[in-house]
Amino acid sequence: MQLANPELLQTQAYIDGQWRDACNGERLDVINPATEQPIAAVAFVGAGETAQAIAAAEKALPAWRSKTAKERAQLLRRWYQLIIDNSDDLALLMTSEGGKPLQEAKGEVAYAASFIEWFAEEAKRLYGDVIPGHQADKRLLVIKQGIGVCAAITPWNFPAAMITRKAGPALAAGCTMVLKPAEQTPLTALALAKLAEQAGIPAGVFNVLPGHAIEIGQVLTASPVVRKLSFTGSTAVGIKLMQQSAATLKKLSLELGGNAPFIVFDDADIDAAVEGAMLSKYRNAGQTCVCANRLYIHDSIYDEFASKLASKVAQLKIGNGAEAGVEVGPLIDVKALEKVQAQLQDATSKGARVIVGGAPLQGRFMQPAVLTEVTAEMTLAKEETFGPIAPLFRFKDEQEVIQMANDTEFGLASYFYARDLSRVWRVAEALEYGMVGINTGLISNEVAPFGGVKESGLGREGSKYGIEDYLEMKYLCMSI
Ligand code: ADP
Q1: CA geometry: angle at 36 spanning 32 and 38, to 5°?
Q2: What is the reported pLDDT for 103?
Q3: Ligand 1 centroid vs 335 CA: distance in angstroms?
Q4: Which DSSP symbol is given to 98?
Q5: Backbone angle region of 373, left / alpha / beta, with phi > 0 → left and psi within -120 to 50 → alpha
Q6: Residue 54 lies in a domain
Q7: Index of the ligand 1 atom closest to the CA of residue 244
Q8: Are residues 308 and 388 in the same domain?
Q9: Do residues 241 and 323 share a domain?
Q10: Are residues 250 and 351 in the same domain?
Q11: Active-site positions, per UniProt (predicted)?
Q12: For residue range 118-139, what is the model confidence (pLDDT) as tens digits?
């Protein structure tokens, strides 16, 4: 891995503006999932360093929150620009530790940077309210203030964007942050911290702790200083963190698992739907929480859709994401590969047909697959797959497919393709999801509210709503 700016390869924790080893000297290897070789050994911290980072964030808070929004925005804007200027290095780090193809990694860097830019702009527009008084001598106002010290815990599948869409609004709102990145992808997080330092974000405002997840999580959730936790990851861990946060009644943002339906009605543009399915399903080798997980195809177009999708999937180039032209990289680890393979075997043992791909390849790779004749009894229908398998379910009418699509505890992203305008509204309103892609397989951007309902989480990230999660409103009642 040859970075243009070698300073971006940081292997120490970033606490209070200092680059630090773990107190006990512990380190953890970061593994390239494509080559299964270690890339770097990163300081692996625990409870003690977490307490220090919380104290640093608390100490930095008064000066940071008393800056004007414009001053904070200028620093964030500088951070944004440095991320853009170092896109190639950040993408290379991301591909090396997370496995996604370089082209996708570059896309993620731009997406990640956009949250910093957007919230730098939003910082200046945190308007309050003046409320007509309830008595002649009363004047009532609402002001909005940053909630205080925030904690963030992020996953490996978007090593940059899941960080910036928390740190962007938090810092813009005048909060400080302690972040624990995923153990698989700490290098991208530490490179972002390096750029924050270079941008002039003051010591203690943004701290990064690669380390022991459970231990760090316990200290962050138990701390009365930490007023908010923002987590992106699995529903099981989200529930655990919510329980742990109950004792100090923290504000929570939780972006958890999904089980996205992708419905193609008989009036859809089939080629557009195939295109959308390719984008939604195979991005990051199927390892995103908004990837199409269950594809419901109307009976009358099922065979045509299946064969068009299969012929596109057969052409996907699999390999090390650092190589030019690769479209599908490895899965993050062997456990992930085994889970996807187990789902595939369960499906075929219950009557599904693999029409393309599916075979495990060397290391952590597998061939992207399309399965037909998939039914609700198969685990593919119930569990998030997080891998490059498209299971095609058959349906005959609208009511039936809405019921099947909603038959899950999850409610993050959903997609459907149709042209009848009444149907578009009916289905969009009936889907129990936080997000609905209509005739598109790509819905994520910084200006729109990302988030789920049901067991997919709490809160929204991005958009004008995203910063609200980092603000408290304060009501002022003034007697004159
Ligand atoms: P994934 O399947 O994406 O790895 P996880 O929910 O296990 O999903 O991980 C998401 C993030 O949560 C990672 O940073 C991981 O280290 C962290 N994590 C996992 N378990 C815990 C826990 N018990 N307490 C705090 N953080 C945790």
Answers
A1: 60
A2: 97
A3: 15
A4: H
A5: left
A6: yes
A7: 24
A8: yes
A9: no
A10: no
A11: 255
A12: 999 999 999 999 999 999 999 9
Helix (H) or strand (E) holding 108: helix 102-122
Q: What residues are annotated to the active site?
A: 255
Domain range for 194: 6-256+456-479
* Residue 160 three-state SS: coil
Name the band, by pLDDT with cuts 50, 70 and 90, for residue 1: confident
To test the ligand 1 pocket, which listed residue (156, 237, 337, 412) has its Cβ within 8 A of the most ligand atoms?
237
Instruction: Give the position, in ligand 1's atom list, of the atom nearest the Cα of 234.
Output: 6
Query: Does the residue 450 lie in any domain?
Result: no
Q: What is the tally of structural domains in the chain?
A: 2
Residue pair 294/433 in contact by the 8 Å Cβ criterion: no
Ligand 1 atom with minimal separation from the 238 CA:
6
**Are 198 and 296 in the same domain?**
no
Q: Return the amino acid letter for 206.
A: F
Number of helices (H), then strands (E), belonging to the chain: the values are 15, 20
User: How much is the pLDDT for 471?
Assistant: 98
Ligand 1 centre to CA of 307 (Å) is 38
The confidence score (pLDDT) of residue 400 equals: 98
- What is the DSSP-derived secondary structure letter of residue 458? E
175 and 83 together in one domain: yes
Is the pLDDT assigned to residue 283 strictly greater than 90?
A: yes
| Same domain (yes/no): 251, 270 | no
Name every protein residue with a CB atom under 6 angstroms from any ligand 1 atom. 153-156, 180, 182-183, 213-214, 217, 233-234, 237, 240-241
Bridge partners, 42 (sequence order) = 28
Tell me how far apart the terminal alpha carbons of the chain are, to the nearest angstrom.
66
**Which pLDDT value is given to residue 405?**
98
Q: Do residue 384 and residue 329 come from a single domain? A: yes
Q: Is residue 448 part of a domain?
A: no
CATH for 372: 3.40.309.10
Per-residue model confidence as pLDDT tens digits over 225-260 = 999 999 999 999 999 999 999 999 999 999 999 999
Dist CA 180 CA 54 (whole Å)? 12
For residue 365, is it within any domain? yes
| Model pLDDT, residue 85 | 98
Average pLDDT over residues 193-212: 98
Q: What is the pLDDT of residue 67?
A: 98
CATH for 219: 3.40.605.10
Tell me if residue 412 falls in helix, strand or coil: coil
User: Are 161 and 271 contained in the same domain?
Assistant: no
3-state secondary structure of 291: coil
Residue nearest (by alpha carbon) to ligand 1 atom 18: 213
Give every CB contact of residue 323 below 8 A, 6+ residues apart in sequence: none
Average pLDDT over residues 275-302: 97
